[in-house]
Amino acid sequence: MEKYQLICKLLDEKKAKDITIVNIEGLTIIADKFVICSARSNTQVKALVDIVDEGMSKEGYEPLRVEGKQEGRWAVLDYGDVIVHIFYEETRKL
């Protein structure tokens, strides 16, 4: 299973909404794919960050960086070739 597929599976299992994969390979050097999703609450944003982090760790992947978890409005997990954006639903609408 590809890294981004595993991330999507983990997010889906925890009821993330509107999971979207954006292929940016060849367009930028920062990553090959963005995985973007929404959460229904600040608490769910934090829970989704935790489940992705734990699930990826079990498969041997550690994030290079995690930002925004404490606020719960938007969080990002950087896995090098895949960057995960988890938005509180209202923040994503902006």
Question: How would you describe this protein?
Answer:
The protein has 94 residues and is α+β, with helices and mostly antiparallel strands. Helices cover 35% and strands 31% of the residues. The chain is built from 3 helices and 5 strands, in the order H-E-E-H-E-E-E-H. The protein has helices at residues 3-13, 42-58, 89-93, and strands spanning 17-23, 33-39, 65-67, 74-78, 82-88. Strands 1-2-5-4-3 form a 5-stranded mixed sheet. Strand 4 and strand 5 (82-88) form a beta hairpin. Helix 1 (3-13) crosses helix 2 (42-58). The longest helix has 17 residues, at 42-58. It starts with a helix and ends with a helix. The mean pLDDT is 94.
Put the structure in a nutshell.
The protein is 35% helix and 31% strand.
Secondary structure topology:
Elements (H helix, E strand, L loop, with lengths): L2 H11 L3 E7 L9 E7 L2 H17 L6 E3 L6 E5 L3 E7 H5 L1
Parallel strand pairs: 2-5
Antiparallel strand pairs: 1-2, 3-4, 4-5
Helix pairs in contact: 1-2
What is the C-alpha radius of gyration, as a whole number of Å?
12 Å
Number of helices: 3
Series of secondary-structure elements, N-terminal to C-terminal: HEEHEEEH
- State the shape: globular
Poorly predicted runs: none
User: Approximately how much beta-strand content do the residues carry?
Assistant: 25-35%
Q: Give the averaged pLDDT, no decimals.
A: 94
| Helicity level | 25-40%
Q: How many strands in all? A: 5
- The secondary structure category is alpha+beta
How are the strands of the biggest sheet laid out side by side? 1-2-5-4-3
Q: Tell me the major beta sheet.
A: 5 strands, mixed
User: Cα distance, first to last residue?
Assistant: 33 Å
Oligomer status: single chain
